[in-house]
């Protein structure tokens, strides 16, 4: 009878692989936490509109405490069919709206999504919202990181 010998990795090699996997996981988590630590969002809100409204807007103040610019290239939410970055402006006395390809939050600076200016266009709500509801919107940065933000449905927060 022939017995095949199977070489198993030594305990030391298994332990090194295990520690390497844990180290890589911690590194990835710390990079994500670092982005979140450099990013402060205040006054994130969505005006309460009647249920037949198919389009809504999201507003917030975003602060970048890091030493480099943060560039938002997209936004999404499970609560809406689509979310896009938009700009409102008055041109020849007529209100105009156009999509934005990206929004830059300068290093050690801030950016506001606000009525009558840059805002999040929230299209196709998947449910009716009540005042006080929380809606998760995720911002995608140019470097691929995704940063979730909770928006409150209701009146504009007081500063």
Describe what this molecule looks like in 3D.
- With 159 residues, this protein is an alpha+beta fold.
- It has one domain (38-153): Immunoglobulin-like (Sandwich), CATH 2.60.40.
- It contains one helix and ten strands, in the order αββββββββββ.
- Strands 1, 2, 3, 4, 5, 6, 7, 8, 9 and 10 form a ten-stranded mixed sheet that branches.
- The termini are far apart.
- The model is unreliable at 18-34 (pLDDT under 50).
What Rg, in angstroms, do the CA atoms define?
23 Å
As for the CATH topology, it is Immunoglobulin-like
What can be said about the biggest beta sheet?
10 strands, mixed
By DSSP, the count of extended strands is: 10
Overall number of structural domains: 1
Global shape: globular
Q: What string, H for helix and E for strand, traces the elements in order?
A: HEEEEEEEEEE
Helix content: 10-25%
List the helices and strands and how they pair.
Elements: H1 11-37, E1 39-46, E2 55-64, E3 70-76, E4 80-91, E5 94-99, E6 103-105, E7 109-113, E8 118-125, E9 134-141, E10 146-153
Parallel strand pairs: 1-10
Antiparallel strand pairs: 1-2, 2-7, 2-8, 3-6, 3-9, 4-5, 4-8, 9-10
């Amino acid at each position: 009878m022939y017995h095949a010998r199977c070489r198993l990795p030594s305990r030391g090699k298994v332990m090194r692989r295990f520690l390497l996997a844990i180290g890589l996981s911690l590194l990835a988590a710390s990079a994500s936490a670092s982005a979140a630590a450099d990013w402060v969002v205040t006054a994130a809100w969505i005006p309460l509109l009647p249920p037949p409204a198919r389009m809504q807007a999201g507003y917030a103040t975003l602060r970048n405490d890091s030493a480099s610019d943060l560039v938002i290239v997209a936004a999404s939410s499970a609560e809406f069919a689509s979310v896009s970055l938009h700009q409102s402006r008055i041109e020849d006395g007529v209100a105009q709206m156009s999509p934005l390809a990206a929004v830059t939050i300068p290093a050690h600076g801030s950016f506001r999504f606000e009525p009558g200016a840059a805002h999040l266009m929230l299209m196709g709500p998947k449910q009716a919202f009540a005042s006080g509801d929380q809606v998760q919107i995720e911002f995608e940065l140019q470097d691929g990181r995704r940063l979730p933000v909770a928006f409150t449905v209701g009146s504009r927060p007081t500063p």
